[in-house]
Amino acid sequence: MTAGPAQAAEVSYATKCVPPPGVGLPDVNGTTKVEITAPATAKVGDTVDVVWKFTQAASKNPDIVDLPANSVQPSGTLKAAGAQSADVAMSGPRQNPAIPKGAAMVLSDMKGTLKLTAAGQVTLTPDAYVVNALSTDTKCAPTEAVQPAATINVTAGEGSSEPSSASPSPSPSPSTSPGTSPGTSPSPSSSPSGDTPTDFTGKVVDVPYTCQSPIGEKKATSPVQIDATKNGGGYDLTVQFKKSVMDSPVAIPADSVKPSMRVVLGGSDRGSVTVTGPTNASPIAQGAPIEIPDLTGTYKPGATGESTLSPGVLIVEALGTTTTCTPDSTSVSLTLDTEEQASGASGGSASGGASGSTPTSGGLAETGAGDHGTLKALGLVAGTAVLLGAAVFTFLPGRRWLR
Questions:
Q1: Are residues 202 and 228 in contact, defined by beta-carbon separation less than 8 angstroms?
Q2: Between 20 and 30 A from 246 (CA), which of 58, 252, 304, 400?
Protein backbone atom coordinates (compact mmCIF):
# COMPACT_ATOMS: atom_id res chain seq x y z
CA MET A 1 0.00 0.00 0.00
CA THR A 2 1.38 3.40 -0.93
CA ALA A 3 -0.24 6.76 -0.31
CA GLY A 4 0.44 10.32 0.79
CA PRO A 5 0.17 11.79 4.32
CA ALA A 6 -2.98 11.01 6.28
CA GLN A 7 -5.72 13.58 6.78
CA ALA A 8 -8.45 13.62 9.41
CA ALA A 9 -11.78 15.44 9.33
CA GLU A 10 -14.87 15.33 11.57
CA VAL A 11 -18.51 15.34 10.48
CA SER A 12 -21.70 15.21 12.54
CA TYR A 13 -25.14 14.03 11.43
CA ALA A 14 -28.60 13.37 12.85
CA THR A 15 -29.08 9.66 13.49
CA LYS A 16 -31.90 7.30 14.46
CA CYS A 17 -30.91 4.26 16.52
CA VAL A 18 -33.27 1.28 16.74
CA PRO A 19 -32.78 -0.93 19.84
CA PRO A 20 -32.94 -4.72 19.48
CA PRO A 21 -36.47 -6.17 19.29
CA GLY A 22 -38.03 -7.55 22.42
CA VAL A 23 -36.29 -5.27 24.95
CA GLY A 24 -39.10 -2.72 25.11
CA LEU A 25 -36.96 0.36 24.46
CA PRO A 26 -38.03 3.24 22.19
CA ASP A 27 -36.05 4.39 19.17
CA VAL A 28 -33.43 7.05 19.92
CA ASN A 29 -32.84 10.16 17.82
CA GLY A 30 -29.43 11.65 18.43
CA THR A 31 -26.30 13.03 16.82
CA THR A 32 -23.33 11.00 15.62
CA LYS A 33 -19.93 12.67 15.42
CA VAL A 34 -17.30 10.87 13.38
CA GLU A 35 -13.70 11.56 12.45
CA ILE A 36 -12.49 9.87 9.27
CA THR A 37 -8.74 9.45 8.66
CA ALA A 38 -7.49 8.64 5.15
CA PRO A 39 -4.53 9.56 2.88
CA ALA A 40 -4.78 12.99 1.26
CA THR A 41 -3.21 11.71 -1.97
CA ALA A 42 -2.77 8.31 -3.61
CA LYS A 43 -2.46 6.62 -7.00
CA VAL A 44 -4.74 4.35 -8.99
CA GLY A 45 -4.00 0.80 -7.90
CA ASP A 46 -3.21 1.75 -4.28
CA THR A 47 -5.08 0.10 -1.43
CA VAL A 48 -5.51 2.67 1.31
CA ASP A 49 -6.34 2.30 5.00
CA VAL A 50 -9.30 4.22 6.37
CA VAL A 51 -10.07 4.79 10.08
CA TRP A 52 -13.49 5.73 11.50
CA LYS A 53 -13.24 7.28 14.99
CA PHE A 54 -16.39 7.93 17.03
CA THR A 55 -16.12 11.23 18.87
CA GLN A 56 -19.78 10.86 19.86
CA ALA A 57 -22.25 8.00 19.45
CA ALA A 58 -25.89 8.87 18.81
CA SER A 59 -27.28 6.93 21.77
CA LYS A 60 -26.28 6.28 25.37
CA ASN A 61 -26.23 3.03 27.29
CA PRO A 62 -29.89 2.51 28.37
CA ASP A 63 -30.78 2.45 32.06
CA ILE A 64 -30.98 -1.35 32.07
CA VAL A 65 -27.57 -2.88 32.73
CA ASP A 66 -23.96 -1.83 33.24
CA LEU A 67 -21.88 -2.89 30.25
CA PRO A 68 -18.64 -4.60 31.28
CA ALA A 69 -15.30 -3.80 29.71
CA ASN A 70 -14.67 -5.22 26.23
CA SER A 71 -18.33 -6.14 25.63
CA VAL A 72 -19.22 -3.63 22.87
CA GLN A 73 -18.28 -3.95 19.20
CA PRO A 74 -19.11 -1.50 16.38
CA SER A 75 -19.38 -2.21 12.65
CA GLY A 76 -20.60 -0.01 9.83
CA THR A 77 -20.40 1.22 6.26
CA LEU A 78 -18.42 4.09 4.75
CA LYS A 79 -19.57 5.42 1.36
CA ALA A 80 -16.93 6.17 -1.29
CA ALA A 81 -18.10 8.46 -4.12
CA GLY A 82 -16.76 10.71 -6.85
CA ALA A 83 -14.18 9.13 -9.15
CA GLN A 84 -15.35 5.71 -7.95
CA SER A 85 -18.25 4.38 -5.90
CA ALA A 86 -17.95 1.70 -3.24
CA ASP A 87 -19.27 0.64 0.14
CA VAL A 88 -16.35 0.23 2.53
CA ALA A 89 -17.07 -2.31 5.28
CA MET A 90 -15.76 -1.02 8.59
CA SER A 91 -15.37 -2.90 11.87
CA GLY A 92 -13.79 -2.30 15.23
CA PRO A 93 -12.57 -4.58 18.02
CA ARG A 94 -14.66 -5.47 21.05
CA GLN A 95 -12.70 -3.01 23.15
CA ASN A 96 -14.25 -0.53 25.58
CA PRO A 97 -14.08 0.58 29.22
CA ALA A 98 -16.89 -0.39 31.58
CA ILE A 99 -19.95 1.70 30.67
CA PRO A 100 -22.47 2.39 33.49
CA LYS A 101 -26.23 2.55 32.92
CA GLY A 102 -27.18 5.85 31.30
CA ALA A 103 -23.59 6.76 30.41
CA ALA A 104 -22.31 7.76 26.98
CA MET A 105 -21.39 4.85 24.73
CA VAL A 106 -17.68 4.44 24.15
CA LEU A 107 -17.00 2.75 20.81
CA SER A 108 -13.66 1.53 19.46
CA ASP A 109 -12.15 2.87 16.23
CA MET A 110 -13.31 1.04 13.11
CA LYS A 111 -10.97 0.25 10.23
CA GLY A 112 -11.38 -0.75 6.60
CA THR A 113 -9.50 -0.67 3.30
CA LEU A 114 -10.33 0.71 -0.14
CA LYS A 115 -8.66 -0.14 -3.44
CA LEU A 116 -8.50 2.91 -5.71
CA THR A 117 -9.51 2.19 -9.29
CA ALA A 118 -9.96 5.58 -10.97
CA ALA A 119 -8.17 8.93 -11.06
CA GLY A 120 -9.88 12.00 -9.57
CA GLN A 121 -11.33 12.93 -6.22
CA VAL A 122 -12.80 10.16 -4.02
CA THR A 123 -14.92 11.34 -1.10
CA LEU A 124 -15.52 9.28 2.03
CA THR A 125 -18.81 9.67 3.93
CA PRO A 126 -19.89 7.79 7.09
CA ASP A 127 -23.20 5.96 6.83
CA ALA A 128 -25.13 3.42 8.96
CA TYR A 129 -23.51 1.51 11.81
CA VAL A 130 -24.38 -1.25 14.27
CA VAL A 131 -23.50 -1.41 17.98
CA ASN A 132 -23.32 -4.99 19.27
CA ALA A 133 -23.48 -5.32 23.07
CA LEU A 134 -24.20 -8.46 25.11
CA SER A 135 -25.25 -10.31 21.94
CA THR A 136 -27.80 -7.65 20.91
CA ASP A 137 -27.63 -5.24 17.96
CA THR A 138 -28.62 -1.57 18.05
CA LYS A 139 -28.87 -0.31 14.45
CA CYS A 140 -28.13 3.36 13.76
CA ALA A 141 -28.70 5.14 10.43
CA PRO A 142 -28.54 8.77 9.25
CA THR A 143 -31.80 10.72 9.06
CA GLU A 144 -30.30 13.52 6.96
CA ALA A 145 -27.81 13.91 4.13
CA VAL A 146 -24.30 13.43 5.49
CA GLN A 147 -21.40 15.58 4.34
CA PRO A 148 -18.15 13.89 3.19
CA ALA A 149 -15.62 13.60 6.01
CA ALA A 150 -12.50 13.11 3.87
CA THR A 151 -11.33 13.41 0.25
CA ILE A 152 -8.56 11.48 -1.46
CA ASN A 153 -6.95 13.02 -4.55
CA VAL A 154 -6.16 10.04 -6.77
CA THR A 155 -3.66 10.39 -9.59
CA ALA A 156 -3.15 8.06 -12.56
CA GLY A 157 -0.97 5.05 -11.91
CA GLU A 158 -0.77 1.30 -12.26
CA GLY A 159 -4.11 -0.33 -11.65
CA SER A 160 -7.47 -1.20 -13.06
CA SER A 161 -9.72 1.44 -14.59
CA GLU A 162 -12.75 -0.65 -13.74
CA PRO A 163 -14.79 0.21 -10.62
CA SER A 164 -14.09 -2.04 -7.69
CA SER A 165 -15.84 -2.48 -4.40
CA ALA A 166 -13.95 -1.95 -1.19
CA SER A 167 -11.99 -4.74 0.41
CA PRO A 168 -13.33 -5.00 3.97
CA SER A 169 -11.15 -5.37 6.99
CA PRO A 170 -11.46 -8.70 8.82
CA SER A 171 -15.12 -9.10 9.62
CA PRO A 172 -16.40 -9.60 13.16
CA SER A 173 -17.77 -12.86 14.49
CA PRO A 174 -20.79 -14.42 12.74
CA SER A 175 -23.16 -13.11 15.41
CA THR A 176 -22.17 -9.51 14.43
CA SER A 177 -21.38 -9.62 10.75
CA PRO A 178 -22.62 -6.30 9.30
CA GLY A 179 -23.29 -7.77 5.84
CA THR A 180 -26.12 -10.03 7.00
CA SER A 181 -29.61 -8.71 7.50
CA PRO A 182 -33.14 -10.13 7.51
CA GLY A 183 -34.60 -10.46 4.02
CA THR A 184 -31.37 -11.47 2.29
CA SER A 185 -32.20 -14.01 -0.41
CA PRO A 186 -30.47 -17.38 -0.26
CA SER A 187 -27.44 -17.23 -2.52
CA PRO A 188 -25.46 -20.32 -3.58
CA SER A 189 -21.69 -20.04 -3.82
CA SER A 190 -20.18 -21.67 -6.89
CA SER A 191 -17.21 -23.98 -6.68
CA PRO A 192 -13.88 -22.64 -8.03
CA SER A 193 -14.24 -24.71 -11.18
CA GLY A 194 -17.62 -23.15 -11.98
CA ASP A 195 -19.48 -26.45 -11.47
CA THR A 196 -22.89 -26.79 -9.86
CA PRO A 197 -23.07 -24.75 -6.63
CA THR A 198 -22.44 -26.71 -3.44
CA ASP A 199 -22.77 -24.01 -0.75
CA PHE A 200 -26.12 -22.37 -0.05
CA THR A 201 -26.52 -19.38 2.27
CA GLY A 202 -29.88 -18.80 3.91
CA LYS A 203 -31.35 -15.48 4.94
CA VAL A 204 -31.55 -14.32 8.55
CA VAL A 205 -35.09 -14.61 9.94
CA ASP A 206 -36.28 -13.17 13.26
CA VAL A 207 -37.90 -15.95 15.28
CA PRO A 208 -40.01 -15.04 18.35
CA TYR A 209 -39.57 -17.80 20.94
CA THR A 210 -41.54 -18.70 24.05
CA CYS A 211 -39.17 -20.58 26.35
CA GLN A 212 -40.42 -22.86 29.11
CA SER A 213 -37.70 -23.38 31.71
CA PRO A 214 -37.62 -24.78 35.27
CA ILE A 215 -37.99 -21.21 36.59
CA GLY A 216 -40.88 -20.16 34.38
CA GLU A 217 -41.74 -18.72 30.96
CA LYS A 218 -39.67 -16.21 29.00
CA LYS A 219 -40.16 -14.66 25.57
CA ALA A 220 -37.31 -13.56 23.31
CA THR A 221 -36.68 -12.96 19.63
CA SER A 222 -33.52 -14.26 17.99
CA PRO A 223 -32.25 -13.85 14.42
CA VAL A 224 -31.53 -17.33 13.00
CA GLN A 225 -29.79 -18.35 9.76
CA ILE A 226 -29.70 -21.80 8.11
CA ASP A 227 -26.88 -22.62 5.66
CA ALA A 228 -26.29 -25.83 3.70
CA THR A 229 -23.42 -27.55 1.90
CA LYS A 230 -24.29 -30.26 -0.62
CA ASN A 231 -22.66 -33.56 0.31
CA GLY A 232 -23.47 -36.30 -2.20
CA GLY A 233 -27.24 -36.64 -2.26
CA GLY A 234 -27.67 -34.90 1.11
CA TYR A 235 -26.84 -31.58 2.71
CA ASP A 236 -24.70 -30.70 5.71
CA LEU A 237 -26.64 -28.05 7.63
CA THR A 238 -25.34 -25.26 9.86
CA VAL A 239 -27.74 -23.20 11.98
CA GLN A 240 -26.52 -19.93 13.47
CA PHE A 241 -28.25 -18.04 16.28
CA LYS A 242 -27.28 -14.38 15.95
CA LYS A 243 -28.53 -13.60 19.46
CA SER A 244 -29.11 -15.51 22.68
CA VAL A 245 -32.70 -16.37 23.57
CA MET A 246 -32.17 -16.52 27.33
CA ASP A 247 -29.95 -15.46 30.22
CA SER A 248 -28.54 -17.98 32.65
CA PRO A 249 -30.51 -18.01 35.94
CA VAL A 250 -27.51 -19.49 37.80
CA ALA A 251 -23.77 -19.83 37.33
CA ILE A 252 -23.16 -22.74 34.95
CA PRO A 253 -19.80 -24.56 34.71
CA ALA A 254 -18.12 -25.41 31.42
CA ASP A 255 -19.24 -28.45 29.43
CA SER A 256 -22.73 -28.54 30.95
CA VAL A 257 -25.05 -26.88 28.37
CA LYS A 258 -26.13 -28.88 25.31
CA PRO A 259 -28.36 -27.25 22.63
CA SER A 260 -30.28 -28.87 19.78
CA MET A 261 -32.97 -27.77 17.35
CA ARG A 262 -35.46 -29.22 14.89
CA VAL A 263 -35.21 -27.62 11.47
CA VAL A 264 -38.71 -27.76 9.98
CA LEU A 265 -39.03 -28.96 6.38
CA GLY A 266 -41.68 -27.62 3.99
CA GLY A 267 -42.44 -27.17 0.32
CA SER A 268 -41.94 -30.50 -1.44
CA ASP A 269 -40.60 -32.20 1.68
CA ARG A 270 -42.05 -32.82 5.13
CA GLY A 271 -40.63 -33.62 8.53
CA SER A 272 -37.71 -32.14 10.41
CA VAL A 273 -33.96 -32.39 10.84
CA THR A 274 -32.15 -32.56 14.17
CA VAL A 275 -29.17 -30.24 14.46
CA THR A 276 -27.02 -30.16 17.58
CA GLY A 277 -24.22 -28.05 18.98
CA PRO A 278 -21.25 -28.63 21.28
CA THR A 279 -21.42 -28.03 25.01
CA ASN A 280 -20.23 -24.69 26.37
CA ALA A 281 -16.44 -24.39 26.41
CA SER A 282 -16.38 -21.75 29.16
CA PRO A 283 -18.36 -21.19 32.37
CA ILE A 284 -21.47 -18.97 32.10
CA ALA A 285 -21.97 -16.39 34.83
CA GLN A 286 -25.36 -15.89 36.46
CA GLY A 287 -27.39 -13.41 34.42
CA ALA A 288 -25.11 -13.70 31.36
CA PRO A 289 -26.58 -14.68 27.97
CA ILE A 290 -26.48 -18.38 27.10
CA GLU A 291 -24.86 -18.20 23.68
CA ILE A 292 -26.08 -20.84 21.23
CA PRO A 293 -23.11 -22.23 19.23
CA ASP A 294 -23.45 -23.25 15.59
CA LEU A 295 -25.75 -26.27 15.35
CA THR A 296 -24.98 -28.90 12.72
CA GLY A 297 -26.74 -31.91 11.22
CA THR A 298 -27.39 -33.77 7.95
CA TYR A 299 -30.47 -33.47 5.74
CA LYS A 300 -31.29 -36.32 3.33
CA PRO A 301 -34.21 -35.21 1.14
CA GLY A 302 -37.32 -37.38 1.19
CA ALA A 303 -38.83 -35.71 -1.87
CA THR A 304 -37.86 -34.21 -5.22
CA GLY A 305 -38.66 -30.55 -5.77
CA GLU A 306 -38.27 -27.25 -3.95
CA SER A 307 -37.84 -27.88 -0.22
CA THR A 308 -37.84 -25.17 2.43
CA LEU A 309 -36.02 -25.11 5.77
CA SER A 310 -37.24 -23.05 8.73
CA PRO A 311 -36.09 -22.74 12.37
CA GLY A 312 -38.11 -24.91 14.74
CA VAL A 313 -38.13 -25.92 18.40
CA LEU A 314 -34.92 -25.22 20.33
CA ILE A 315 -34.00 -27.52 23.24
CA VAL A 316 -31.37 -26.47 25.81
CA GLU A 317 -30.26 -29.08 28.34
CA ALA A 318 -28.31 -27.72 31.33
CA LEU A 319 -27.49 -29.10 34.78
CA GLY A 320 -30.00 -31.91 34.44
CA THR A 321 -32.85 -29.61 33.37
CA THR A 322 -34.46 -29.02 29.98
CA THR A 323 -35.62 -25.69 28.57
CA THR A 324 -37.88 -25.87 25.51
CA CYS A 325 -38.16 -22.79 23.28
CA THR A 326 -41.07 -22.99 20.84
CA PRO A 327 -41.38 -20.52 17.95
CA ASP A 328 -44.51 -18.36 18.15
CA SER A 329 -44.07 -18.05 14.38
CA THR A 330 -41.32 -18.90 11.94
CA SER A 331 -40.18 -18.08 8.42
CA VAL A 332 -38.28 -19.88 5.68
CA SER A 333 -34.54 -19.25 5.93
CA LEU A 334 -33.36 -21.49 3.07
CA THR A 335 -34.88 -23.03 -0.07
CA LEU A 336 -33.18 -25.96 -1.82
CA ASP A 337 -33.84 -27.80 -5.09
CA THR A 338 -33.79 -31.36 -3.76
CA GLU A 339 -33.81 -34.85 -5.19
CA GLU A 340 -35.34 -37.71 -3.23
CA GLN A 341 -32.73 -40.06 -1.78
CA ALA A 342 -33.12 -43.80 -1.39
CA SER A 343 -32.21 -43.44 2.29
CA GLY A 344 -34.73 -40.65 2.76
CA ALA A 345 -38.09 -41.90 4.00
CA SER A 346 -41.24 -41.09 2.05
CA GLY A 347 -42.90 -37.96 3.30
CA GLY A 348 -39.74 -36.20 4.30
CA SER A 349 -37.81 -38.21 6.88
CA ALA A 350 -34.57 -36.55 7.80
CA SER A 351 -31.76 -37.26 10.18
CA GLY A 352 -28.95 -35.30 11.63
CA GLY A 353 -27.16 -34.10 14.69
CA ALA A 354 -25.04 -36.20 17.01
CA SER A 355 -23.99 -39.68 16.11
CA GLY A 356 -26.60 -42.19 17.16
CA SER A 357 -29.56 -39.81 17.07
CA THR A 358 -32.80 -41.41 15.99
CA PRO A 359 -34.29 -40.25 12.67
CA THR A 360 -37.90 -39.18 12.84
CA SER A 361 -40.54 -39.13 10.16
CA GLY A 362 -42.79 -36.24 9.19
CA GLY A 363 -46.55 -36.54 9.16
CA LEU A 364 -46.94 -38.63 12.36
CA ALA A 365 -49.16 -37.07 15.01
CA GLU A 366 -51.14 -39.91 16.59
CA THR A 367 -51.63 -43.59 15.83
CA GLY A 368 -53.68 -46.46 17.17
CA ALA A 369 -52.56 -49.96 18.05
CA GLY A 370 -53.53 -51.10 14.58
CA ASP A 371 -50.72 -49.07 13.13
CA HIS A 372 -48.03 -51.04 14.97
CA GLY A 373 -46.86 -52.62 11.71
CA THR A 374 -46.46 -49.22 10.09
CA LEU A 375 -44.47 -47.97 13.06
CA LYS A 376 -42.28 -51.04 13.05
CA ALA A 377 -41.58 -50.52 9.36
CA LEU A 378 -40.43 -47.02 10.21
CA GLY A 379 -38.05 -48.39 12.80
CA LEU A 380 -40.16 -47.26 15.78
CA VAL A 381 -40.35 -49.98 18.43
CA ALA A 382 -41.69 -50.10 21.97
CA GLY A 383 -40.33 -47.30 24.11
CA THR A 384 -39.23 -45.12 21.20
CA ALA A 385 -39.58 -41.41 22.02
CA VAL A 386 -40.20 -38.93 19.23
CA LEU A 387 -40.21 -35.13 19.49
CA LEU A 388 -43.11 -33.60 17.55
CA GLY A 389 -43.41 -29.84 17.86
CA ALA A 390 -42.73 -28.99 21.50
CA ALA A 391 -43.95 -32.31 22.98
CA VAL A 392 -42.35 -35.71 23.42
CA PHE A 393 -44.42 -38.76 22.45
CA THR A 394 -43.52 -42.34 23.46
CA PHE A 395 -44.87 -45.40 21.62
CA LEU A 396 -46.03 -48.37 23.69
CA PRO A 397 -47.35 -51.63 22.15
CA GLY A 398 -51.14 -51.83 21.97
CA ARG A 399 -51.63 -48.19 22.97
CA ARG A 400 -51.76 -44.78 21.45
CA TRP A 401 -48.92 -42.30 21.67
CA LEU A 402 -48.34 -41.21 25.27
CA ARG A 403 -47.51 -37.54 25.69
A1: yes
A2: 58
